[in-house]
Amino acid sequence: MNIFNILSEIEKVDPEVYNRLDSRRKVFKHLGGFGKKLAAAAIPVAFGAVFNKAYGQTGSNAALIDILNFALTAELTDSNYYKMVVDTNSSNVPATAKAGIALIASNEMGHVQTLQSAITALGGTPIAIAPTRFDYTAGGRIPDPLTNYATILALGQAFEDTGVRAYKGQAPNPAVMANDMVLQTALQIHSAEARHAAYFRRMRRDMATGGVATNKPWITLNNIGGLPAITQPIYDGEQLTTQATVNIVMNNISADAASEAFDEPLNRATVEAILSLFIRP
Amino acid sequence: MSKIINPHENDAGLIKSASNPIHRRSFMKYTGAGVALSALFLAGCDDNDDDEIDYSKTNVMLGTGDTAILNFAYALEQLEAAFYTQVIDNKFSGMTALETSVLTDIRDHEIAHRDFFKTVLSTNAIQMLTPDFSTINFGDRTSVLQTAQTFEDLGVSAYNGAGKHLTDATNLALAGKIVSVEARHAAEIREMIQVNTFASRPSPINAMGLDLATPPLQVLNAAQNFIKERINTTNVPTT
Question: Which of A264, B25, B214, B220 has the fewest CB atoms within 10 Å around its CB?
């Protein structure tokens, strides 16, 4: 077990790990006292000290770990879906869309691994969900989630718009705000989810048949854009046109544009209720 | 806002940041070694490195703490709003109905963001900035869309990098409401230029699926090329 190799491995998944540890030199200095012949038994202790500084900051990490496991639940649900879509490789999905969905699948896998690493580093245990528990028919309400192209895009939109709202709801949580590294990483995942959401939304807009021409990359009021009715909770609350007491409908800005210009957070319980449609108990 | 000439403050902020080679290098790193940026920005950075501070320019103070970050966002939204206003007022040839609809929507969103910040910042708001779009050919679709992509990716990167500097949860929540809309814009604009670049790797998304994040000073350094006034970054939070 070579601790320097471990740091190098972590650097691959978290390129900024040395920034979080003050500097590469300081990390090595910190560990240098032990020398490269560090006793195996001492490694977890020394390593723990390094990571408490990097990811832990002060006090108990329980609240933060809990939030990250919540995010991981959503990411596992998404990434498992895209993996199944990619593996199914249905001939109903055009080649360009397959490439786009494969890209999203890779990004989501990265989110899963990032969250798992962070949770472990904080001293927590990443939750695991058996693949057999996922049910993308939502209890039979959504037929052919893996082979119907329009359905695949619709489910993708639903998952990504939910993800955006879920991260947005947790970012201002005191436990997240207290940890700069976790906060910034969460924001970086959050905007990636928004890019994915915009992609699915525009693909549905531009579909020759079976699409919704009025669907936009951004969310207008609380429109579900032709998604199944069970997705309405994903969009409820998005119709806000007042932000921090400021009425955004001004200077020729319509209510539609005012609602589109700001995405809204969603509380954890609502997100969990949405996810529960796709996860068997 | 009155014209403030304060060489000392300039010395502590812009001169130092502009003349520090590490500064530029880390800027390049954060933005994906220039992959995400058009040649426009990079050319501008080269110029900036050697520029003397022009004391004839109006010096714009952003303030301190959360106010500085909100004014920073306000400055970027001003630029974006002015850009898309000009895009719609002088449509490039061949702009389709769908493109017109998309770009009009984005213009309205950016105006909404700009006016929102102006209202919430109230007396702490910086002045209306004078954009410098002399490097943009508004008659050319490629020039317009490339600039739009640069602005949108920079906006996403800016909000992602600034979030940890906000101390008030309400301010962070508001920034969060805006950044995802900027990301939606970025994805749409990118797809208008080339398919399947909405979240492509290694930029704007890295190998772990993470979007861009750039510290405020680096973002301001890039944005300065499009602003005639001089943004004074002396008190912009860096830790």
Answer: B25
Task: Give the domain extent around A34.
Answer: 3-52
User: Which percentage of chain A shows pLDDT scores above 70?
Assistant: 79
Smallest CA–CA distance, residue B159 to chain A, in Å, is 9
Interface contact B159-A114, CB threshold 8 A? no
* Residue A208: predicted pLDDT: 87
- A12 and A48 inside one domain: yes
Q: Cβ contacts (< 8 Å) between A14 and chain B: which residues?
A: 208
Residue B23, pLDDT score: 40
pLDDT at B24: 38
A236-267 confidence digits (pLDDT tens): 999 999 999 999 998 899 999 999 999 999 99
Residues A73 and A38 in one domain: no
Quick one: A178 and A271 in the same domain?
yes
Question: Taking residues A224-235, what's their average pLDDT?
Answer: 93
B163–A184 CB contact, under 8 Å:
yes
Q: What is the dihedral of CA A66, A70, A72, A75, to 10 degrees?
A: -170
> Residue B210: pLDDT above 60?
yes
| A37 domain-assigned | yes
What are A69-123's pLDDT values in tens digits?
999 999 999 999 999 999 999 999 999 999 999 999 999 999 999 999 999 999 9
- Please tell me if residue B29 touches chain A, with a CB cutoff of 8 Å: no
**Nearest Cα residue to A242 out of A262, A268, A266:** A262
Q: Does residue A124 lie in a domain region?
A: yes
Looking up residue A124, the CATH number of its domain turns out to be 1.20.1260.10
Question: Rounded to the nearest 5 degrees, what angle is found at the Cα of B132, between the Cα atoms of B126 and B135?
Answer: 150
- Cβ–Cβ below 8 Å for A265 and B176: yes
- Asked whether the beta carbons of residue B172 and residue A114 sit closer than 8 angstroms, the reply is no
Is A197 inside any structural domain? yes
Chain B partners within 8 Å of A172 (Cβ): 169-170, 172-173, 176
Residue B217 and residue B236 in contact, taking contact as beta carbons nearer than 8 Å = yes
Q: Is residue A47 domain-shared with residue A66, that is, in the same domain?
A: no
* pLDDT value at B50 more than 60: no
* Distance between CA atoms of residues B157 and A219, nearest Å: 21
The confidence score (pLDDT) of residue A118 equals 97
Q: Report pLDDT for A136.
A: 98
* Per-residue CA distances from B164 to A58, A72, A146, B113, B168 (Å): 16, 21, 39, 20, 10
**Predicted-assembly ipTM surpassing the 0.90 threshold:** no
Tokens 């702009």 found at? B95
Q: How far is A242 from chain B (nearest CA, A)?
A: 10
Q: Do the Cβ atoms of A195 and B172 come within 8 Å?
A: no
Q: What's the total number of domains in chain A?
A: 2
